[in-house]
Amino acid sequence: DLQYVRSAAEMVVPVLRRGNLVILESTVPPCTSEKVVLPILEKSGLDRNEFLFVHCPERAIPGNTLFEMINNDRIIGGIDEQSGNTARTVYSSFVRGSLLITDTKTAEFVKLMENTSRDVNIALANEFAKIASEMHIDVWAAIDLANRHPRVKILQPGPGVGGHCIAIDPWFLTE
Q1: Residue 43 DSSP code
Q2: Catalytic residue flag (residue 31)
Q3: What does DSSP assign to residue 155?
């Protein structure tokens, strides 16, 4: 449901001026910037080459947001090189992590890849816990032993996936 993204873009339209930078920091399906947000912003009377635009997915966990906004690497997906470079200047004023520039569609896709990977890995750990319980195996000890393999990092099982986005973001890929 992109109603809040559309609404935010509509609110920007009356104040958008030539040369302004618009940053979308919301998890969205690939092509949302191009097919949804930019056409709304063009209702300002400006063509997309007259303002700057990037999609920069947030990478912060609730409860630790400020620390992670400052210290995590950021993906900056610009509609053009100038947009990406201008956004890098903005983010470099407070981000200590690396600032990695790409295009908008790739930035949108990367965020979904990250959350889908976490979703699958959490689900896998929970499936292992269910099987181990049925077989009377200590799942914690088994995971500890399995994680001694140099290319294995099984997460700890828990009461579900958690978070407000990890469970729904993989569905953006099926859209």
Answers
A1: G
A2: no
A3: P
Q: Can you tell me whether residue 1 is helix, strand or coil? A: coil
Active-site residue, from 35, 105, 111, 153: 111
Q: Are 126 and 24 in contact (CB under 8 A)?
A: no
pLDDT at 52: 98
pLDDT at 70: 93
Residue 167 has pLDDT above 70, yes or no: no
State whether the Cα torsion 60-63-64-66 is positive or negative: positive
At residue 162, the pLDDT reads 63
Write down the catalytic residue from 35, 43, 130, 165: 165
Residues whose CB is less than 8 angstroms from the CB of residue 27 and which lie 6 or more positions away in sequence, other chains included: 57, 58, 111, 112, 115, 165, 169, 172
pLDDT beyond 80 at 124: yes
Give strand ranges (E) for 2-88: 21-24, 52-55, 74-78
Predicted local confidence at residue 90, as pLDDT: 97
Active site residue 56: no
Instruction: Tell which residue, 24, 16, 6, 86, has the closest CA to residue 51.
Output: 16
For the cut 90, the answer to whether the pLDDT of residue 49 exceeds it is: yes
Could you tell me which residues are beta bridge partners of residue 24? 55
